Amino acid sequence: MQTPLATPVPVLRLPRGPDGSNRGFAPDGRRAPPKPEVPEPPESRESREQQARASLRERYLRSLLAMVGRPVCFTLHEGVQVIAHFGATDLDVANFYVSQLQTPIGVQAEALLRCSDIISYTFKP
Hints:
Its main location: cytoplasm. Helices cover 18% and strands 31% of the residues.
């Protein structure tokens, strides 16, 4: 039994290459001319500010999570310092719920501190 003849394949003759002696390919192996690099547009000032704000907000929220159940020293207006165990905050972060609030006039079992009254707070992680 004879093997059937393969169908002839058309041959495409490539044009002469860049150096004139080879056919179709650059001598350094490039198959296409390099594309000019288009510089990416610089980030706008607003997007950099937004990224910075998002990073600061995330750090702040992580600090709130780290404070839960720990003694925190709050500095209020007029330089008043109080110590309390941090419990939680509301959704708007407008109030802090604390327990065992030690004030200059006594200890409160539970209290809400308005964030607008707080100048700073510190705690040991």
